[in-house]
Design brief:
Blueprint (H helix, E strand, L loop, with lengths): L6 E5 L3 H13 L3 E5 L2 H11 L3 E5 L7 H10 L6 E5 L4 H9 L4 E4 L4 H16 L8 E2 L2 E4 L4 E4 L2 E3 L3 H12 L5 E2 H9 L8 H14 L5 E4 L3 E4 L5
Parallel strand pairs: 1-2, 1-3, 3-4, 4-5
Antiparallel strand pairs: 6-7, 7-8, 8-9, 10-12, 11-12
């Protein structure tokens, strides 16, 4: 008998979609629980503590945006994979800004869904090498995966932490958006580089003027060496 990879919570109101998601995730060894509306899904997340959440944006009652906001406001940083319709770009970006870790646009392959869930979980587990312990005004703990700015804790999602850590591990090296998608997200050849900009913006907003991330115009991003 294959050991379970953990419980994935699916919050999806279209039964034919959630049935396929459940089938493919279960085949890969995940336990799966499905809820059809946001309020019930949020209650299930708090009760069951899943390893990841597959969250549709267009839910009845509490939609996916409100769900994600409530989850993060409560300090729950369970990895969230948003599922959106093609015309929901503004909601998709807002969801990422609220702390979602990734997204898929309908229609999508169920195999891609499984691959994305696995990738999100790998990112949540952290990069293989530890980042610098202290970088200027920042203190980064690779074991607890926490960040402090001037001694005060800063809440970062798993993806935000990995992005910051990756840049700090290569201070001064300039990365294109495509390289960051491949090396941080695990998506080589992925075309939607806007996601990188959203996450960089989020990290900068949380770190304020202590952020080491710099834009290299026309190329991408890098981290600066700590100041005195």
């Amino acid at each position: 008998m294959t050991e379970s990879r953990g419980l994935v919570l699916i919050v999806e109101d279209e039964r034919h979609i959630s049935d396929v998601q459940r089938l493919y995730l279960a085949r890969e060894g995940f336990g799966v629980h499905v809820e059809a509306d946001g309020a019930a899904g949020l209650a299930a997340a708090r009760r069951m503590h899943p390893v990841a959440i597959v969250l549709d944006i267009g839910l009845p009652g509490m939609d996916g945006i409100a769900f994600c906001r409530a989850l993060r406001d409560a300090g729950d940083w369970t990895p969230v994979l948003l599922v959106t319709a093609r015309g929901e770009e503004a909601d998709r970006i807002l969801g990422l800004e609220l702390g979602a870790d990734d997204y898929l646009t309908k229609p999508f392959s169920p195999r891609e869904l499984v691959a994305r869930v696995k990738t999100v979980l790998r990112r949540a587990a952290g990069p293989p090498g530890p980042p610098p312990g202290i970088t200027g005004r920042l203190s980064v703990d690779p074991v607890s995966r926490t960040v402090r700015r001037d001694g005060e804790p800063v809440e970062l999602t798993a993806t935000e932490f990995n992005l910051l850590s990756h840049l700090l591990q290569h201070v001064g090296q300039v990365f294109t958006r495509e390289q960051l998608l491949a090396q941080v997200w695990g998506y080589p050849g992925y075309r939607d580089t806007r996601m990188v900009d959203v996450f960089v913006s989020q990290v900068r907003a949380k770190l304020g003027d202590a952020s080491p991330i710099r834009t290299v115009r026309g190329v991408g991003y890098s981290a600066t060496a700590p100041g005195p």
